[in-house]
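## retry 2 of 3
previous attempt timed out at serialization; input unchanged, resubmitting
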Amino acid sequence: MLKFEGIDWANAQKLLTSETPPEILNIYNEPYVLSSEQIEYYRQNGFVKVSKVLYGEALNYAQKVVEAAVLLRKDSDKRTLAEKSQYEQSFLQCGYLCFDFPAVKDLVFSKRFAGIGRDLMEVDKIRLWHDQALFKEPGGRPTDVHQDSSYWPVKEPEFTTTIWMAMNDVPVEKGCLYFYPGTHKLGLREYVDIFKNPHFPEALDPENNIKVPLLAGDATFHSGLTFHGALGNTSSEMREGMTIIYTKDGSIFDAADERNATHKSCKGLNDGESIDTEFTPVLA
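## retry succeeded, writing output
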């Protein structure tokens, strides 16, 4: 049974429908100034660690909000980890939370986070693609190496980026992410079902990866083209990660792959149209 300290069904519902306190919103939306070194690191490696993206009471509040949303989404699932599919053993995945829960929307629509993504991609404006919580249960299996952009119907995947924010401390043993530096330059977009037909890309040296443990409130940003994975959770605690995916304003919908064209973010779009829907607002 899914449990989070201090959160049950009733107070989860109350928290998720309550107005976010103004002092929390101020932190969600205050600018984060990147250094030129961070931007250059992202440009060269396809990912970068950004410290203290959230902090203090805003971090504590955001953690409770995300935990509450995951609880409401997953509380009816009483299966043990062993009873779940290989996919589900890698993470508890809860997408599009911001359109179900107002308190999550305030977090996901953060101008602070979006501004970092915009500046790292070096574009004028960026849009929301979608959000998802990615929690990994104690004993959860590794997430196999993959490239996010192969799952998204976006014609210019080089202009997509994901913030992966630690809601609690994520050391190596809890299942931190690892990245293959520079692989965003390979331009590969081969779709691989990493849970049914995993394989390791021939172009990569399995040992040439960088593990990125995080403290609560720290985050990584990585390009949709950067190969990455996550370690298994060998700890006794839940790994709690919240992600938001962005695409540049003006990105084009690619419906060539019918599997990918089912994304809610593409609702109502035709192939070749600009991605501009009710689910993909400009955030920064």
